[in-house]
Design brief:
Chains A, B, C, D: Keywords: Amino-acid biosynthesis, Aromatic amino acid biosynthesis, Lyase, Phenylalanine biosynthesis. The structure is a homotetramer. In chain A, 30% of the residues lie in helices and 28% in strands. Chain A is an alpha/beta fold. In chain A, α9 runs antiparallel to α10.
């Protein structure tokens, strides 16, 4: 039922990855069920089918970029909406069975993205260890727990879950690295505006129209809507055919964002609304990400004034 | 009373000019009173004070350009609105007292703009006549009627009124020359949309904002509103300070023009609505002046569809 | 010969008008001949034919707006260029034959624009006098000198020339009113850039292209060229067909203005260059008219850097 | 030495993947050495260090989207340029040791992206087989060759290399799926323009400037440069900080693209040129990807005309 808080949560598994850790920051999830899914599509399908109320999946990483499969799933298939974003520092740790010393580590299991992000640390502290690619951070922790490998690069929650000792933490070359996750539900009324919100859209443009992307940006700019992110995802039809996934500042309930949305709806081949939700502020937020007040002439009250003026004109007053 | 058809008309005099001739094309004026005014401000002040219901004044001429005083009066002072436009061919005739022959004409009275527009004809047919500047086409006809001058360049109605014989017609170098007049009333409900309407605006922009005029044009372009004319008129504050008088295609009751108007209201220092009224089609209308259908995505039904879609999004459907 | 300073000057007559007064502010004109012309076309034709080296004609007035005939003459016909602008305060005086007192004035000769601009003063000081329309400020002074009228509203130089006593000065309702004049020559090398220049253009756009005017403004905006004035002048072909006369900040020798000019040349039906010349600064210049430094990335050295970079790319360095 | 054709090639390994297959379509590579690299960074570093002359790496896939690591490597680090693009159909085959029948297949090794793209085929023909994730298409083929798995989803070249029998081909759900590869070299003169070229750029914008991305698109649009692709890649500084990787139509030697590049250089925080190279046309190219003639006014000859005109203006002719 719309309005009922979600109680059955699913997240991108396996257990012990950053996705589970991100889900634990959502208060409602502490009191609900939390089930790992084998993949992003599986997590989202669980929500679509009604098996789960909400899914926690990664959207983008400040080092690795967009998580294509999540964007593709949101842009295509049965519609879903984002109701919350979670920004989580990517704090890699080196986990090993209790008793292992750093000096004795000869093999390290790691997801390739994880080992790439910890290259500097590995060169410095484990120059002679063999790094073995595995398919997830959770799988790395499992491999260390079973003794298949001497150690694992994993999330703190992965070490905890598998009762690994943390031999070192903050392994990442970029100490400020974060991952942005989305909590996704079936369509329903969006959370109320907070004054500092994000709206995510999937926009399909007519490819035979020159300057079509420019006109999308103009629809936003004329209403003072700030575009904070744009991702191109292939539509699968042909090389060179993209759907654009946009993050804008503002909430669907804001007048100017509403007008911009209507403009996109009119000029684009298709627009899919992927949710309005509060911006997650975190310690190392970039300065440019501060909430931006509506530009001159574009606040809700400016809109109300202009609408009242137009109504007077139409009545001939 | 709003809605009551006007019965008391005033026009830019004196009698016997093109303004009177233009007023005679307005059906209601045939049954009402028609009073000449000495100047455009006087004509408009008669409407403002309630002495007259409507004034017929010139807006622009296809040869001489904008009639500055009319634009200035509409942009400043007590508000008025245009309810109708009249396009009239500028058909200059040579009038003289009956019995005069072309060969005997030695002096011709003419308003300087009239003699400029008939330069070719005068050189060909009256190369030796002295052309005397007078202050209006009506004054020229009067001068010929009183015998002060042998002939006058004037409007057909001027020859009729002063019982002058027409020695020659179609004197103008530009046979397609026309003047555009406006019928102006006190503010009231605009005439209903016809599908081929014009809206006139006076727009004040913030001069300390670089690109302010560009953003005005973008507000229109994003809504597919076509700008057919732009005139700069000095505000009188200082050299380089202008108010822009714009003609746009569309009616204030159209959704997209309404949205564009609201946009201008928000981004401009001030906007004055000067009326929505049917476009006057005439024989020699330029091809480009054909009624332009709303661009893709910008018809009223596209707007209605987009508004309904937004409402569904906001309700979470 | 190009480069030879002009010695034979012509100006919009008759003698004793503001045009003559403006010409007297041009140093070279003090040592040359100064001949009045009967009209703007006549003045410019004298330059075209080689009879005169330069003509001084009015461009616009801060109250009355553009002088259409000057713009039309510059945009059409044999090309000419502006080499200098002169801004002159419009200081109307009341001239009368010596011995006349203000109290005895019963009739005042005035050009209609002059009497309009002095309405307030006339109501206050000469509420009972008859104001008679004449065809120029110079003709008004002549009429007062011959005794046809008791007094004349005219330029200071008109009173001097006709030996009139000045009964009152600063008659204008707008004490800061100015007129802007152009000194016009046959095409030749423009005066050197000063860092605070104006460039005037006549731009013909394709009327069948929607948004053609917007694309003109974008060509300028992308190069950071500021548009200080835009005038629509009818081309005479048909109502709704205009040539736009633009004033831009900058000099044809500036890199970014050069690039913008090339852009206009490519996208417009036609562009006529009407001169680059130093901006005339005067006492009451509006604040916004201060010389504007080139926007970030658009100075000549930014252009030079970008051109050098491109050359390196093309050589594969 | 610049100009010397490359002879030592490296490609994203292992052997038997689509990258090797793509490299085999490059004529020069047939006569040179072809060495697999363990990763994209390793391949590109081999070129940077001079060990190899050129590297063949994937850029994007019509199903999976951009290959982030390639874009990141090109946008950061020691500069490299693309000299050629190769578009290769993604034709997955099912390889198994000779003698294996489809009915006997119980386990299939596949890279997760490969199994995702063959989901439909797997459901239909091997509904009961276990699909095991491995780290590359080449690793899958190896696993089938060693007997670790019964079969592998791999590239045709992978089956050939490991002497696998092809039990089925065209396994992909999207029969038109292609991957786009780049041949990358150290900076040098670009290949000559062909009239149908692509230019790739990495653009860094000032994040504190509202509408910065819009102004990038305007720099392109004003010069009629078509943007065919835009990818956002994180800069690693912070979430929300992106570098944009753009594909444009045209060649750095084209005048209008040169002017657009200079414009980007001036308005952006930084621009890195990543090469101009002939567009690869292939059988199923989308209609919209046809070579687009320069828009009216933007051909090289239009530019030459405008430059000559400007030069005449500056000389005063």
């Amino acid at each position: 039922m719309p309005g009922t808080p979600p109680t059955r949560f699913v997240y991108l598994g396996p257990e012990g990855t950053f996705s589970e850790q991100a889900l634990r920051t959502v208060p409602a999830a502490e009191h609900g069920t939390r089930t790992p899914a084998r993949s992003v599509p599986e997590a989202l399908d669980a929500v679509r089918s009604g098996e789960a109320d909400a899914a926690l999946v990664p959207l983008e990483n400040s080092i690795g970029g967009a998580v294509g499969v999540t964007l593709d799933e949101l842009a295509e298939g049965e519609p879903l909406v984002i109701t919350r974003e979670v920004i989580l520092p990517v704090d890699f740790v080196l986990g090993a069975r209790p008793g292992t010393t750093l000096a004795s580590v000869r093999s390290v299991a790691a997801h390739p993205q994880a080992s790439t992000q910890c290259r500097q640390w590995l060169r410095t502290y484990l120059p002679d260890a063999v790094v073995v690619d595995v398919l997830s951070n959770g799988a790395a922790a499992t491999g260390a727990a079973t003794g298949e490998y001497d150690a694992a690069i994993c999330a703190p929650i992965g070490a905890t879950r598998h009762r690994l000792a943390v031999l070192a933490d903050k392994l990442g070359d970029h100490p400020d690295a974060v991952t942005r996750f989305a909590l996704v539900s079936r369509p329903g009324p969006p959370p109320p505006p907070t004054g500092d919100d994000v709206t995510t859209l999937a926009v399909y443009i007519a490819h035979d129209r020159v300057g079509a992307l420019l006109s999308v940006l103009m629809e936003l700019a004329v209403r003072g809507v700030n575009l904070t992110r744009i991702e191109s995802r292939p539509t699968g039809e042909a090389l060179g055919r993209y759907v654009f996934v946009l993050d804008c500042t503002g909430h669907v309930a804001d007048v100017r964002l509403g007008e911009a949305l209507q403009g996109l709806r009119r000029v684009c081949a298709d627009v899919r609304f992927l949710g309005s939700y509060p911006r997650h502020r975190w310690a190392t937020s970039a300065a440019g990400d501060r909430p931006v007040p509506a530009p001159v002439g574009l606040s809700d009250s400016d809109y109300a004034d202009a609408a009242a003026w137009l109504a007077r004109l139409r009545r001939g007053e």
